[in-house]
């Protein structure tokens, strides 16, 4: 099979595109023929040399997938050949990744693709949508009628947060950079969009939510916590999902006096049962059109190195050059 892989970590140029042996499904696994995959920031960190865990060698990159079951291993009852599936959690915790023509995946990390949803859309949403669901509902306990502020409403996770929050009836305030992204954010369901390239963001937010927001979803790697705490309502909840090496100053006094709480989590550490519960809601929203993938561009799998370069420039280089996910097609 063709695959995008590396033998030693480094710059995007270490990614090779070539032939690797076809995998076979072990007991409890499903062999999936890839139809589409997508890039996540964590993919670039692992390729860059982050030593989170030992990697197989060679290591196939990528977390997310969508495709068709071609073979099932012993004990698998929930899928059969011909079923369309999507999933994530590959390329993590020592597992092989998804940027290949075939991938052997533990059945517990796969979900049925709803009828009418394209493989490209299904591949663009796994990690970001499960992350959004866990943060909104398991962690922040967002409820209908509450107000949420989403930093970066057109980003990979941000776009999912905006749509899910709106789907349950929350009041959604989001940021976007420039008129074009602001318009896209509104189409995703944001009630109010603040252009962070113009005006005083803190003042604009105060005018929209003078009593503060119930949930503050932070996507910045180095957040201004004085701004966050000032924006939170009594018993407000802050969700963080980026900035592994960040050490910002923390305004402890105002934070605890308001009775606020801080929620940080890594999606891939959640159990299979927790992620399956997320996928159930996600599939319902996909099938009913309440959740849509946000795709910036689609590339052939052979251009995986270029996809990593683009993602890294956006995430690490802070170029804000992407509006949505990069999808690759074998």
Can you tell me about this structure?
The protein is an alpha/beta fold and 330 residues long. The protein has two domains: 2-125 and 294-329, Medium-chain alcohol dehydrogenases, catalytic domain (Quinone Oxidoreductase, Chain A, domain 1, Alpha-Beta Complex); 128-267, Rossmann fold (3-Layer(aba) Sandwich). Helix content is 30%, strand content 26%. It is built from ten helices and 16 strands. The strands form three sheets. Strands 3, 5, 6, 7, 8, 15 and 16 form a seven-stranded mixed sheet that branches. The chain has a six-stranded parallel sheet with strand order 11-10-9-12-13-14, sandwiched between helices. A three-stranded antiparallel sheet has the order 2-1-4, with no helix packed on it. Helix 3 packs across helix 4 (156-167) and helix 3 (126-139) packs across helix 9.
SS strand fraction: 25-35%
What is the domain tally? 2
Q: How can the largest sheet be summarized?
A: 7 strands, mixed
How far apart, in Å, are the first and last alpha carbons? 10 Å
Report the CATH superfamily of the largest domain: Medium-chain alcohol dehydrogenases, catalytic domain
Helix proportion? 25-40%
Average pLDDT level: 96
Low-confidence stretches: none
Structural category:
alpha/beta
Q: So what's the CATH class of the largest domain? A: Alpha Beta
The CATH architecture of the largest domain can be given as: Alpha-Beta Complex
């Amino acid at each position: 099979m063709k695959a995008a892989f590396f033998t030693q970590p480094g710059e995007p140029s270490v990614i090779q595109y070539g032939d690797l042996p076809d995998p076979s499904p072990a007991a409890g696994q499903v062999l999936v023929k890839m139809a589409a995959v997508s890039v996540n920031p964590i993919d670039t960190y692992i390729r860059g040399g982050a030593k989170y865990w030992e990697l197989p060698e060679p290591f196939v990159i990528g977390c997310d997938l969508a495709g068709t079951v071609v073979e099932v291993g012993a004990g698998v009852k929930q899928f059969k050949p011909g079923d369309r599936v999507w999933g994530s959690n590959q390329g993590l915790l020592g597992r092989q990744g998804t940027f290949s023509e075939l991938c052997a995946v533990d059945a517990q990390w796969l979900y049925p693709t709803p009828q009418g949803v394209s493989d490209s859309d299904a591949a663009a949403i796994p990690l970001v949508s499960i992350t959004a669901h866990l943060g909104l509902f398991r962690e922040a306990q967002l409820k209908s009628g509450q107000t949420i502020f989403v930093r970066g409403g057109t980003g990979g996770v941000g776009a999912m947060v905006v749509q899910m929050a709106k789907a349950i009836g929350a009041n959604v305030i989001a940021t976007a950079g420039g008129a074009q992204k602001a318009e896209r954010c509104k189409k995703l369901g944001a009630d109010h969009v603040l252009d962070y390239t113009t005006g005083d963001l803190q003042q604009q937010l105060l005018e929209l939510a003078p009593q503060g927001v119930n949930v503050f979803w932070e996507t910045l790697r180095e957040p201004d916590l004085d701004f966050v705490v000032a924006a939170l309502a009594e018993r407000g909840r802050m969700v963080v999902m980026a900035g592994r090496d960040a050490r910002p100053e923390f305004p402890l006094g105002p934070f605890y006096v308001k009775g606020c709480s801080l929620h940080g989590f890594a999606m891939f550490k959640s159990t299979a049962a927790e992620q399956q519960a997320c996928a159930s809601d996600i599939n319902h929203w996909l099938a009913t059109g309440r959740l849509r993938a946000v795709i910036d561009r689609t590339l052939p799998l052979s251009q995986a190195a270029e996809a990593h370069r683009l993602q890294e420039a956006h995430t690490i280089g802070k170029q804000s050059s992407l509006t949505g996910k990069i999808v690759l097609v074998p």
